[in-house]
Amino acid sequence: MVCIILLVAYFIIKGAVIFTHLMQKSGLTPVTLIRLITNDGVPLKSTNGKTNVLLLGIGGGKHAGSDLTDTMIVLSLSGKDRTAALISIPRDIWSDTLKDKVNSAYHYGEMKKKGGGMILARAVVEDIVGLPMHYVLFVDFTGFKNIIYILGGVDVHVSRGFTDTEFPIPGKENDTCPGDPTNKCLYQTVHFDAGVQHMDGDRALIYVRSRHAEGEEGSDFARGRRQQEILLAIKDKIMHPFGWLNFRRVSQIAAVMTDATDTDMNIGEAATVMKRYAGIDEKNVTKIAFNDLLTEGPPFLYKGLYVLLPIHDLQEIQTYITSQLK
Questions:
Q1: What angle in degrees, to the nearest 10, is found between the helix axes of 267-278 and 247-260?
Q2: How far apart are CA 126 and CA 140, in angstroms?
Q3: What phi, psi does 179 have (nearest 5°)?
Q4: Which of 15, 39, 103, 302 could form a disulfide with 91 if both were Cys (CB 3.0 to 4.6 A apart)?
Q5: pLDDT score for 195
Q6: Which residues are paired to 207 by β-bridges?
């Protein structure tokens, strides 16, 4: 009997040590974990029942343009009817505030002061979509890949196949090809077939970054659509099964968020956003793009840049977005 009691005591103590280690590593508290497992998680900031999160993605590194946001998406969660919307912000929209494209907001904000990137990006996006951004989540390419690897890859519904013959080879951003003025050695050819495909972190990153395919798939609008498809694939993966009872997975994702992301959410709020988004049926996720309300601006008026402008005004874009939100 004494041996049994000692054995039970050993496993209780061992379990408590493991649990405590996971809590310390992830920053999650027992109360937050209980809320995540038993209900919707911790309370979130919201306006009219909706919580809006600005998702920013950059390449990182030390090459030119490494702190320009390749990805700008607003995730809008409705706490009332369990719906969500993904609003893609084309990176080439001209901002009168910045006197530059919107994807440069993070760059200018960080130049002014550390942490200013998220503040300025939030303000610029709010001006465009006409919605308050309650939170900002900033992630670099390494963090994006690692999250997908932790999830064991994702199954992505590739809506349109394409081939990109000029996808940059990682690590060669500052190299040249002696004797070749076109620098072809810096690029690789990537191809995706239409249909459901399983992607690991590296493959998924190529899918959302590709921008030199022929035809419409080479546009920024197509990239925005593909980024939405990846977010839906991540949602589907983390909602199956017992994902929120896997303390090791939660701990790993928390560690990645600490190392390769920046956010004004605490760990409980970030985990709550992820859980609520994961629990929404795909048919209740609205994908919003406002490509048809934009037109190209004359480069000579905009520092020689390719830029996008509202056909009429920002109010038309904001009214459209509001009408699409469930």
A1: 120
A2: 22
A3: 85, -5
A4: 103
A5: 95
A6: none
